[in-house]
Task: structure prediction
Amino acid sequence: MRMNTGGAMPTIDMNVMAPAYISIEQLIATGDYTYATLCGAVNSVPYEPGYLGKKGFYHYLGSRTRDVKLEFDGQTIGLIQSSAPMSPGVVVSRKPRTGLSFRAPRLAMTIPVHATEVAEVRELGAADLEGVETQAGWRIRNAIRDLRSTWEWHALNGAMGILLDADGSVMINYFTAFGIAQPTFDMTWSTAGTPLLMKCAAILNQIEDALGGNFNPEGSGATNGIIPSTPPLVLCGRTFWQKLMSDASFATAFQFFQARDQRYLPLREDMRYKDDFEFGGIYWRQYRGSTQQTGQFIPAATAQVLINDLPGTYLGYFTPPEDVEDAVNKPGLPLVATVELMEHKAGIEFRIQSNPIHIMGRPAAALQLFSSN
Result:
């Protein structure tokens, strides 16, 4: 997977941004509403990433356009036929490529704060009356938290192969874009006689087939940079996890895993969300991401396979907004802010915008686990 960039793009540090830090309250008090200062204030609000953000599956870059153009060449590894001395051998020609273009969704929130809203309202836990800057700072931080939660939602759905909006509608279907069928694996929970370890081996085989020579299921720490050195990760819905725990071999292994670091109070700590549990050459974890709008990010009866350490699989780009004069055609930042003063100084209105796109570069490996019975 390649991107037509027209030049190098900066890697984005999600916590420390280039513009100098200034608190939101100080920003409002001084009235320094330049583009750099506004972006510095909103991007410097401490970032508390979700699970995928902490794991670093996506390597984010800043794009200069909202349309991200990619070239796909299949990412396959082939064998070289032997040849006679002095012959040219295999002639390497340009592989056929498919040009793809994806448009980053626009996430924007407007935060108006009227002077009448804070009239005669005291600061929480203080004797002083509340100012517009305090109320605005509180609302802006909540808005930034919601935007960053949406990044996690987009990141997970992008990794699952279908990028969904907050209402569940499809924004981008990467299976359709790449011209492949959505891969699935049937766990057939109610069918006796097939050990769970054999199912794990079948899952690894399907992933290996999807990635061709780009996958090393043994996690032997291969030095080839394109081969992952860690097992794949499976994020499980609640019902799916319960089915795993009902398997005697899985339950026994998890019991030892759970007691490993609990020498004095074994089995007392809930390990579902603390560490990834390895079984059958796969990391397993119950995933708890959810919002009131979407419910659980992972449907309860399913699980999703993610590939560790394979460059080009999960692509993240922050693109510039098209409706902000100071930001257009500049390298995208995670958050961009604008501000308007209301007529007659009746208040202040902030707008915070983010234009991220999370791309699944190898949708053939976006394997969903389910059970047909």
Notes: Residues 132-160 form the longest helix (29 residues). The CA atoms of residues 167 and 293 lie 7 Å apart. The chain has a mean pLDDT of 78. The chain is about 25% helix and 20% strand.
